[in-house]
Write a structure and sequence with these properties.
The protein is built from six helices and no strands. The protein is mostly helical.
Length: 107
């Protein structure tokens, strides 16, 4: 039983696609929480969106050849460092125009 609980975590960390899929799960959870909050500010929704963004950037960097250990040690949960790292790996050429403006505004 314990092995079954560990497997999904291991699977999502072994490939860029696995990280991206997990990011999408957090994004979907954020939408559900935000909808439940209605017009009220929802810190949990923002936390979930932030985590989705973190995992998405890590998936991109992992697909560029950045090792998992480096993602953990050098970048951790630092969104600024992840955005900077993604920009060094030319993430902007993979984004549509509106997203490029957003990434540029974060620097």
């Amino acid at each position: 039983m314990a092995e079954e609980l560990k497997k999904p975590v291991e699977d999502f960390q072994t490939t860029p696609l696995g990280l991206w899929k997990r990011a999408k799960q957090f994004e979907e959870a954020a939408k559900v929480v935000a909808e439940a909050a209605g017009e009220q500010f929802s810190p949990p929704a923002y936390y979930l969106w932030g985590h989705s963004l973190e995992l998405s950037l890590k998936a991109f960097l992992f697909s560029c050849g950045v090792p998992l250990q480096e993602l953990k040690r050098q970048y951790g949960h630092n969104l600024r460092a992840l955005v900077d790292g993604a920009r060094r790996h030319n993430i902007e050429r993979h984004l549509y125009r509106g997203a490029r403006k957003l990434v540029r505004s974060m620097s």
